[in-house]
């Protein structure tokens, strides 16, 4: 294999190929299948942000969760850094998951109220048995600084922070295991509009400085335009359109994307 071919392959952090997900729905007597993701193919390069947009129920979250191994697709393959993650055993997948982290809309609600900021950021490293206690302490401080939480706050508890600050804590916890791929699922939707821009700017700065690959799920087209290099539009589980953010926003190919853009007042 030529060197340039090798580089192109390594450059792909996430590769979804013909991924479908069917959920069984209904009760004991009337069972049916719901196709949440329908034959979707998508790739994310190193240092690239791919925005996933579409109306509620179009399959964005399901595809995001499939991308980091939280949901197993019914068919298709998911490669992260060249590795088919569903070909891994349970323990191997657990270890591999370090490379892929998810930031949820309500991540901050799941922070343990009995832990200090220092402990909350150290927790993912402790659970994975990574680093010495001293090193975890130092790393947690650096991570708090990276998400712009003051050193003086390291002893405070989750409930003492605002919504935006709690989402910064979740971001720091997501970064603690040095991931290469982040799936951010509506990460600012639960925040006040005034706080959203600051958290988005932080996320973008971190993504750029760490050269992270990211899937950014949002129903807000303006937010997606700000964050993304590439945009994929989902409708009924199908990818209707996938192109550079510039092209998709300036020249949407599908009528559905045009409707989405027209109904987005903040653009
Ligand atoms: N565990 C599940 N069991 C059954 N159906 C599910 C399950 N998870 C998702 N679905 C269905 O799959 C479809 C896609 O859901 P998904 O949450 O991925 O969409 P979404 O685009 O992220 O929506 P939203 O913006 O509202 O979060 C929906 O019709 C949803 O009801």
From TrEMBL:
Residues 14-261 form the ABC transporter domain. The keyword ATP-binding applies. SUPFAM superfamilies: P-loop containing nucleoside triphosphate hydrolases (SSF52540). InterPro entries: AAA+_ATPase, ABC_transp_ATP-bind, ABC_transporter-like_ATP-bd, ABC_transporter-like_CS, P-loop_NTPase. Keywords: ATP-binding, Nucleotide-binding, Transport. Transmembrane segments: none annotated. One of its GO terms (molecular function) is ATP binding. It comes from the Bacteria. The keyword Transport applies. PANTHER family: TRANSPORT ATP-BINDING PROTEIN. This is Peptide/nickel transport system ATP-binding protein.
């Amino acid at each position: 294999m030529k060197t340039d071919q090798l580089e192109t392959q390594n450059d792909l952090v996430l590769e979804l190929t013909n991924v479908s997900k069917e959920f069984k729905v209904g009760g004991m007597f009337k069972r049916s299948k719901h196709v949440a993701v329908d034959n979707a193919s998508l790739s994310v390069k190193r240092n690239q942000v791919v925005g996933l947009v579409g109306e509620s129920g179009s399959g964005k979250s399901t595809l995001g969760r499939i991308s980091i191994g939280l949901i197993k697709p019914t068919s298709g393959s998911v490669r992260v850094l060249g590795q088919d993650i569903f070909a891994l055993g349970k323990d191997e997948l657990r270890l591999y998951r370090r490379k892929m982290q998810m930031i949820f809309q309500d991540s901050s609600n799941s922070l343990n109220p009995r832990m200090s900021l220092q402990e909350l950021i150290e927790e993912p490293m402790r659970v994975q048995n990574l680093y010495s206690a001293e090193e975890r302490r130092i790393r947690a401080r650096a991570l708090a600084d990276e998400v712009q939480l003051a050193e003086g706050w390291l002893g405070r508890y989750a409930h003492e922070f605002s919504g935006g600050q709690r989402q910064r804590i979740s971001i720091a916890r997501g970064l603690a295991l040095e991931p290469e791929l982040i799936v951010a699922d509506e990460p600012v939707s639960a925040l006040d509009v005034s706080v959203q821009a600051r958290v988005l700017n932080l996320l973008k700065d971190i993504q750029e400085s760490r050269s992270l690959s990211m899937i950014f799920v949002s129903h807000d087209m303006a937010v997606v335009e700000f964050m993304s290099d590439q945009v994929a539009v989902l409708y009924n589980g199908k990818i209707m359109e996938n192109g550079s953010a510039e092209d998709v926003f300036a020249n949407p190919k599908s009528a559905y994307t045009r409707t989405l853009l027209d109904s987005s007042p903040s653009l």
